[in-house]
Amino acid sequence: MATSTPPDVVVEAEDEDDILGTARKQLERAAAHVDVDPAILERLRYPARVHRVSIPLERDDGRVEVITGYRAQHDNVRGPFKGGLRYHPDVTESECVGLAMWMTWKCAVMDLPFGGAKGGVVVDPKSLSEAETERLTRRLAQEFRTIVGPDHDIPAPDMGTGGQEMAWFMDAYSMQVGESSPGVVTGKPPVVGGSQGREEAPGRSVAIITRELLDYYERPLEDTTIAVQGFGSVGANAARALEEWGATIVAVSDVNGGIYDEDGLDVAAIPTHQEQPEAVARQAETTISNDDLLTLDVDVLIPAAISNVITATNAPDVRADFVVEGANGPTTAAAESILDDRSIPVIPDVLANAGGVTVSYFEWLQDRNRRRWSLERVRNELESEMTTAWSAVAREYAAGSALTWRDAAYVVALARLAAAHEARGLWP
Ligand code: NAD
After folding, report:
1. Cβ neighbours of residue 405 under 8 Å, at least 6 residues apart?
2. 323 CB near ligand 1 (under 6 Å)
3. What angle (nearest 5°) sits at the alpha carbon of residue 28, between those of residues 86 and 313?
């Protein structure tokens, strides 16, 4: 089918290396390996919808400020839109669209019955009192009233938001619709319908995928050294699980720097970002910079803090045998191509940290069924979903010539999305 120039409502990438530019390039690469109708491909380059809202916020001193919020809904052919809601001063519309695209691939590679979305509010959450954050969140739920819902679009915590914001959002939405609706958001506190094991899930999935990766390359976990950048929800939970399973964690860091011990750290004794913010290197004798951590001679490097930390500048110096992406987008496209030339496999974020959205799916199921799962059940089901996804991607990787691990994950996702679009029809 012929395709034409997209409509001007479509958001353009700010530059080709921003998140949206990267997400589109990754789609093009995968498309070269999948037999997909060009019209479907063209559809997937753009969000289905982007909502922009102006939120009046009364500050504690009585002033009213108007704050901008976005919700980008990329694709819902496989199920309701799903994705985080961030509060950050640098949020842009284009970033939300790129992150929404990543959510579409992530849900498809995990075979979850969800599409992709992402929302953001342009605000520094540290500048808000608790009461202001509550007012902002409740008013946001009102602004998004008609575009979210348990069968429509299900937000979750992201940068600058957490369980409390989700509880307020759920409460406001429930009041608006006149019934208790816990399934409208995930990542809630367990007392209001949140799932056991949601907090540890993205880090735990990083650990499971690292274990499967090492097994694939026939490298015993007990003989493996690992460096982890970022010691928050993702990094600390990954490091603690891998240590428990026998790996040696030699370095971890937070925003202020890291600690290193070639014989292995006692990871359980290091405070996580949630336990004591930015305290990783506070009492350590041997500290290390974040830049040096990325080039340590280890078996596995897990960047689990922020985006774009492995770049064309430091990729030639990376000495790890494998990179497993804990954060979203820690490796730039240029860096990945250098690592590929150097035969250093990079396991992509859309697979490795997908435990977060997977346990969000479990939470949504529990809310809809008014049932509670034990932590043991959540962990068992997560293990099963992650190893199934790993096997699908590994099969594609082993079958395809010159595919990177990211290409293989995208091929799996794109094939599923294309099949769903074929079955439903594009209705142009
Ligand atoms: P977090 O806030 O719990 O922890 C972040 C950690 O990174 C902290 O230790 C912080 O000190 C450190 N850090 C911040 N800036 C840094 C810098 N410039 N250099 C080194 N360290 C730095 O965050 P999180 O929830 O663990 O998220 C980390 C990454 O994982 C983000 O990219 C996030 O988008 C992604 N992610 C999170 C989830 C989730 O559900 N938490 C799910 C999937 C992906």
Report:
1. 345, 346, 347, 348, 351, 393, 397
2. no
3. 70
* Cα–chain center distance at 271: 23
Query: Which residues are registered as beta bridge partners of 249?
Result: 226
CA separation, residue 270 to residues 159, 264, 304, 348, 399 (Å): 22, 12, 16, 27, 41
* Structure token pair of residue 184: 């409208």
Centroid of ligand 1 to alpha carbon of 308 (angstroms): 12
Q: Is 97 helix (H, G, I), strand (E, B) or coil?
A: helix
**Of 112, 108, 81, nearest to 97 (Cα)?**
81
CATH of domain 48-183: 3.40.50.10860
In this structure, are residues 187 and 85 in contact, taking their beta carbons and an 8 Å threshold? no
Strand order in the sheet with 248-254: 287-288, 257-260, 248-254, 225-229, 300-303, 322-324, 346-347
Task: Using the mean position of ligand 1's atoms as its centre, give its distance from the Cα of residue 326 in Å.
Answer: 8
pLDDT digit string, tens, across residues 181-203: 999 999 999 999 999 999 999 99
* Cβ of 205 below 6 Å from ligand 1: no
Cβ(233) – ligand 1 distance below 6 Å:
yes
Task: Kindly report the protein residue whose alpha carbon is nearest to atom 24 of ligand 1.
Answer: 233
Q: Which of 330, 400, 320 shows the shortest CA–CA distance to 409? A: 400
Fold classification of 201-352 (topology level)? Rossmann fold (3.40.50)
Beta-carbon contacts of residue 177 (< 8 Å; ≥ 6 apart): 149
Residue among 193, 180, 183, 173 at smallest CA distance from 80:
183
Is the pLDDT at 2 greater than 50? The verdict is no
Count of residues for the chain?
A: 428
Residue 358 beta carbon below 6 angstroms from any ligand 1 atom: no
pLDDT, tens digit, 9 for 90 and up, residues 205-236: 999 999 999 999 999 999 999 999 999 999 99
Hey, do 48-183 and 201-352 end up sharing a CATH topology, with the first three levels equal?
yes
- 70 C-alpha vs ligand 1 centroid, how far in Å? 22
User: How high is the mean pLDDT of the chain?
Assistant: 94
Is 118 designated active site? Answer: yes
Q: Where are the domains of the chain?
A: 48-183, 201-352
For residue 84, what are the contacts with CB-CB under 8 A and spacing of at least 6? 99, 103, 118, 119, 155, 156, 157, 158, 159, 161
329 lines ligand 1 (CB under 6 A): no
Contact yes or no for 91/19 (Cβ under 8 A) = no
Q: Look at residue 42 and give its three-state secondary structure.
A: helix
Query: Tokens 């690469």 map to which residue?
Result: 29
User: Whose CA is closest to atom 36 on ligand 1?
Assistant: 327
